[in-house]
Design goal:
The protein contains 12 helices and 12 strands. By secondary structure, it is of the alpha/beta class. The protein has one domain: 3-Layer(aba) Sandwich (Rossmann fold). It has an 8-stranded mixed β-sheet, sandwiched between helices. The chain has a 4-stranded antiparallel β-sheet with strand order 2-1-4-5, with helices on one face. A hairpin with a 2-residue loop joins strand 9 and strand 10. Helix 4 crosses helix 5 and helix 4 runs parallel beside helix 7.
Length: 351
């Protein structure tokens, strides 16, 4: 794998302040009656750090609402970060203006979740894929644009006939629509792509074909690829490394097989234990992995964010909000008790 780092984020933060009227209502009715008011904000992303190299697929996994999609939008500068560094090809783009970031747009693309909404019903297949080529004036003639569109369609396994180029989204199946979406993302030869739950809206029978196309294109064009999903099985198939997110933080990060086969954080253990085993004769003993409901991103738990739901939590877990710690150089975990929880404490070692 090419070790050329395309994108690296450091301590990325995104907070969404509540509207004043809603903030005031919450203060008066629920939280701060008789106390000094403070500004309320949703902690969507907090101190997230990782990097993606050329030809590598990095996955963000976790429950809905954990901040995965927000991270993807931040990296593409579709929303502005509260703080942190986004280093794209050795340049910090986190503070670039809208005008300045336009020069980077052709190198950064997104594959959306819903192929039924991400394609304009008024654009044919040709116009959908050709639009960025025309806007950026990549080619001098329309014939060159059409040839590039056909070349991109071929790379995603779609026909290059005039009839197909003239079709509109309502004339395509869901799988075809998403392949058009992938073709649109790759038509400018970007170096970085965000894929946000790209097959969750597709029938199970056609997911593998779309995933295989994306996986092949990543390796062929040495793209840095951020794959966002809640499905660990998909992450295992697609990703070289994964980061597990909980309530705006990455709580475990490492090589995919290491994280799947040897989960160290209690939350990761819970996610994996919840995955059904396809072997009907398989037996496994399972603890109750998670208690309670996921907290609001508005009022965070004290200390470790997972401690109210963690069966291993102790009093000290309410006092420390841990950063990622090294279990080994390539496997990081945000849990101060991970050695005890995983029986990694050596005899005589004091925790």
């Amino acid at each position: 794998m090419n070790q050329d780092v395309i994108i690296e984020v450091t301590n990325l933060v995104k907070h969404f302040p509540l509207k004043k009227s809603l903030t005031q209502t919450l203060r008066e009715q629920f939280f701060y009656r008789g106390k000094e008011p403070i500004d309320l904000k949703v902690h969507a992303v907090d101190k997230v750090s990782f990097k993606i190299s050329a030809g590598e697929t990095f996955g963000l996994v976790g429950e809905s609402g954990c901040g995965k999609t927000t991270v993807g939008l931040l990296l593409l500068k579709l929303i502005e970060p509260t703080s942190g560094v986004i280093n794209f090809r050795n340049e910090d783009i986190s503070q670039l203006s809208e005008g300045e970031i336009k020069t980077k747009r052709k190198e950064m693309q997104i594959i959306f979740q819903n192929p039924y909404e991400s394609l304009s019903p008024r654009f044919s297949v040709l116009d959908t894929i050709a639009e960025p080529l025309r806007l950026l004036k990549i080619y001098n003639s329309e014939d060159e644009v059409v040839e590039r569109v056909k070349e991109t369609l071929k790379s995603v396994g779609l026909p290059q006939t005039e009839d197909f180029l003239d079709r509109y989204p309502h004339e395509l199946s869901g799988g075809m629509r998403q392949r058009v979406g992938v073709a649109r993302a790759y038509t400018l030869n970007p170096s970085f792509i965000v894929a946000d739950e790209p097959v969750s809206m597709l029938d199970v029978s056609i997911r593998v074909g779309v995933l295989r196309i994306m996986k092949d294109l990543v390796k062929k064009f040495q793209t840095a690829f951020l794959f966002i999903t809640h499905d660990l099985a998909l992450a295992r198939y697609m990703c070289d490394r994964i980061g597990v997110m909980y309530l705006g933080r990455i709580v475990e990060l490492g090589k995919t097989e290491d994280v799947i086969n040897n989960p160290l954080h209690p939350y990761t253990k819970a996610l994996i234990s919840a995955v059904p085993d396809p072997d009907p004769e398989a037996t496994r003993t399972e603890e109750i992995p998670i208690v309670g409901e996921i907290p609001s991103g508005l009022i965070l738990p004290q200390g470790c964010r997972f401690n109210p739901r963690c069966i291993y939590a102790e009093e000290k877990c309410k006092e420390t909000d841990p950063d990622l710690l090294e279990a080994d150089p390539t496997h990081l975990v945000a849990c101060i008790r991970f050695k005890e929880v995983n029986n990694l404490v050596k005899e005589g070692e004091v925790e």
